[in-house]
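USER:
Make up one protein:

ASSISTANT:
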Amino acid sequence: MCEKVRYMLFLLNLFLLCSSLLSFNSHSTLLLNGEWQFLIENEPESYDYSDIFKIKNWYSISIPAITIEEVDIDKTKKIWLKKNFIINEEMAKKNAVLKWQRIYYGADVWINGEKIGGNFLISPYSILIPKGLLKHGENLIVLRVNGWKSVPRSKSGFPLIPTGASIFNWGSKKPYIEDIWIEFYDKIHIQKILTFPDIDSKKVKFKCWFNSENNSTGDVLILIKITPWKDIFTISGNAKKILSVNNLKENPVEIEVPIKNMKLWSLQNPYLYIATIDVWLNNKLCDRKKIRFGMRELKVKDGNFLFNNKLFYFRGSNLVNEWKWSEEFNKNLLTIKDYLIDWAKRMNLNSFRTHTQPPIHRYLDICDEKGMLILAEFPITYNYLKFNFTPEEQEVFEKNCIADSLAWISELANHPSIVMWVATNESPNEQEKWELEKLIPEIKKLDPSRPVMRAGKTTEDIKDIHCYEGFWFGAEGDFYRVINDVAEFKKKDPKKRPIVNSEYIEGFPPKRRLKWTGSTEDNEQAQLTYAQFGMEQTESMRRLKYDGIFPYMYGMWTKRPGKELWKKEFPTPMFASLKSSLSPICVSIDLFNSNFETGQKISTPVYIINDTPFKSSVKLTYYITSSNPKFLGNPSVFNKPIFKKSEKFELAPYSEKIKYFECTLPEKKGEYFLSAVLEEKGKKVISQRIIRTIDKYEIPEKLKRKTLIILGADSFIENYLKEKEINYSTQLKLEIINPDLIVIWDDSKIEEKIKNEIEIIIKKYIKKGGKLLVFAEEQWDWRTLVNFTIDKGQRYLGLKRSSRAFMKDKTHTIFEGIDEEYLKRWNGKNGVIADGILKIEKPEEYQKIETLLWINDEKSPCILKLSYGEGEIIISSCWIKDRLKKNTETFDLSAERLFLNMLNL
C-alpha cells in the first residue's frame, strides 16, 4: 500500500511539475495547449487567411499533438489551426511574446486577423506580439503549419532546413506540435537565460538576453535569487546588477552568483537549484523567470571525460524520437520514468544520445530529477548522403542549420542532464569544413560549457565512430579491426581526444538473421545469437577503454507498453547481455576463436574492469557448461557445470586486472559455453563465449590411396600432403597418371604458357567423368578454364564476405562429419570463411550449377558444384589455406575437415 501511495505522489508531483513548468518559468504566462481546431490544405487547394473561415468542416485536435493522422504526406501542403483564448484586462495592457517549443515544419501566425510573423524551422521560436493587438476578452490565434511538401528544398530535392530523420523512409514526415504559450511583461522582457556552472569556484554565471520597448528610459535592476529546488525557503545565493536600459540590447548581461554550501548535481544525487530572475525598471517589476539548473561540469582533458572533475565513461544507448511514439506512452509520466530511468539503470546505462532530434522538456525534466545524462543531437542529419547543393543552396542550408542549433541551445541548455551537444549525424566529407569552421564555433560561442560531438565523425573535442562492420556486413572480426584502429588513433592523437562509438549493433531484421543464423526465423536462439554479438562487441571496447559506448538502439531491447518480457528481470536477451557488458564493474573473456580439438588445453586472457572511483571486493568464477547461461537469464546451468573454479580479489578504483583462464576442454565433441561470472556486493555480471570441440580427423585409407594432381602448388601444400601421406603429383601427365582429382591450388603460380597448353587437356578430362577442384580465395584469373569471378561487392553497401557459412546440401560428401555449427566463425583471419561470392559468368556452359555452401543468403555461394559433361567441377572461395597450418592461431579443424573431404571427392 505504501508503495502505491508513493507512486501516486510521484505521479502527482511530475504532473504538477510538467503542467506548471511554463508558469513557473515566467511570472505571467498563458498556456495555449489543449483543444484547437484544424483544417487540412491539400493539393491543388490554395487558401489565403480569409478563405479558411468560409470552411465549416474543422476537426478537433489536442496540443501538444504527436501526429495529425489526417495529413497525407504526398498531398498536404499546409495545416491550419485555430484557437480562441481569453485574457483579462491587465494582460491586455501588457507587452506580449508568443513562443513554442517545436513545430514541424514551422508555422506562420495570425492573432486577431493580423499576421505577426513565423518561422520555417522546426526549432523553438518566439514572436513579439505588437502592443495593443491583444484585447481584453476573447482573442483568436491562427497557425498555418507547413506540411512536408511545403518544406523549402534544393534543386536536388533535399530540404534546405534541418529536418532530422524526415528525409529517410524510416523517419516520420508527419507534423508534430509541442507546447505553445504567450508570455506577458511590462516594457522589458527576459528573452532567454543560460546558466554556466563553475564548480571549482562554487559560482554560477548567468547570461541574460532582454527585449525592451524602444522608448524605455531609466536604470534597470536585475535581481537573482537561488534556492534549492526542494527547499525554496533556503537562500543559496543572491546577486544584483544595475545598468542603463540602453545597454540591454547590445550584449547579454552576465551576472555571477556564489552558491553557499554548494551541492553537485550527479547521477547518484541529482541535486537541483531554482534561480529566480527579476528585472525592474524605475522601481517597477517588468518580468520574472524561474530557471532550474544543477551544478555540474563535463570537461575533456588528456583524452578523458571528466565529470565533476572525476574520470567518467559514458555507457549509454540511443533514444530515437521516443517522444513521437503514441500519446498513450508519452502522456503517462510514470511510464516514461520507468522506461527512461528505472529500466535504463537496471541495464547499467548512465546516458542517452538522442538520435536525429533534441529531446523534449518532459523527458529532460525526468532526467534532471532522477540522474540520467543526455547527449542532445540537433536535427542536422545526413547519414552520409550527399545533398548536392549548389553553392547558393549550401549557403542557405548552413545559415538555417546555425539558426536552428542556436535556438535549441537557447531552449534546452539549462537542463543539467544535457552534458553534450551533438551537432550533426554522419556528415559526408564535403560538409566537414563548414561544420568545423562555422557551425561548431557558433555553438561554442553561445555555450562554451559543453563539449561538441559530430555523430560518426570528429571534432576538436571528440572522435566518434559508427561501427556496423562485422554485423551489418562483413565478417565478425571486421568490427574489432575498426575499433582497434580507433584505439591506436587515440594513442597518437596530438589533440588527445576521447574516443566514442555512438552507434553499433542496431536491429536483427530477417536479412541479418539469415546472414548470422542461416534462417529468417525470429526465435529465442536467434535473439541469443544477436545478444552474443552485443556482448562481444561491447566488451571489446571496454577492454580498449573507449570513453563512450552507445549501442543502437535502446527501444529495441527494453520494456515498453505492450511488449512481452523475455524474463522477469530481462525484457530481452540483448538487455541481459548489455546489462553485464556495460556494467561499471565488468568482466570480459578475450577469446575470439571458437573451434578447438577435443581435450585441448586452452589459455585465454580475462579482463576485470573497474570504471568507478571506488575500491571493490569481487569474486570471479569460471564455468564450462553444456547449456547456454543466457547472460544469467538461465543461471540454473551453473548448478551442474562441467568445470568450475573461483577466486576472490580486490579491484582498485579505475583499474583493470588481467587474469588467465586455463583449462582442458571436454573430450567429447560438442558445443559448450565458457563463462566468467563476476560477483560484487551480491550483484552478478557475466561474460560468456561459445566453445566448440571437434574430434581430430584421421585420414581415411581411401583418401591415401587416391591419386591427386596439384597445379599451382607451393611448398606448404606439398609438405602438408606428404605429412598426411596423400599421394599427389604436380605434373599433368594424363597419359601416365589417371588421377582421381585435379586440384588447382593457386592459379597465379601457373605460367600462362602452361595454362594454354593444359587447358584443353583438363576440359577433356572433366568431360569424360573427371573431377576438378578449384581453390580461389581472393581472385581467379584462369577464366578460359572456368569462367567465374569472386564478387566482393561495394564496401559501404555491404561487403560480400562473412564469417558464417551454411550448407545448401547437407548430404553432400564434402560435409561428411561436419556440424554446421563449426562453419560459424573459423579461427583467426577475422573469422572470415569467404571474402566474396562465386559468380559464374557463362552458366550456359554447364548442365547444372548447384550451391553447396553459402554466406549471407542462399543466392551468395562460396562453394559451387558445376556439372560439365560426365564430370564435375567444385569451386571454393572459402579461406581454407591458412586454416591448415598447425600450431598457428588460424588453424581450424573444421576448415581442415572440409578441405580433406573435398580432396576425397
Notes: The CA atoms of residues 316 and 350 lie 6 Å apart. The first strand starts at residue 29 and ends at 31.
